[in-house]
Amino acid sequence: MKNLETISTVAESWSSYKVFEFLASGLVVVLGTLFFLSVITFLVGKIFEFPGMLERRREARKDSALAEAQEKKSSGCFEDGITPELIAVISAAAAEVLDKPFKLINVGEVSTGASNWSLAGRSSHHSSHKVR
Description:
- By secondary structure, the chain is mainly alpha-helical.
- The protein is built from 5 helices and no strands.
- Helices cover 71% and strands 0% of the residues.
């Protein structure tokens, strides 16, 4: 019971400025601690980083991407079973309809699970762009 009386006495004596000051100082302490921990984590990562590790990772990604591209090229088929002949047919149809130079950026199948709302949105989005 004595604790409740003490809390109520303190709460009545504090002004709104003092409450704001208390909350702001708590926020500064928490954010300062988070910043300090992030700096410590960064420094520990730099200390224990093996020399040349990033370069090896980049090379490994580059090699795997190159091998994947060569595999697709050798099979004569791109993603989703799209062949170079299909891309040529799509390009020819687009050239006939547009009657001006264009750039074919991406060819892919539309997912069959797409709802009518998403198809309408996709159509609206594509029609809002200029054709290059």
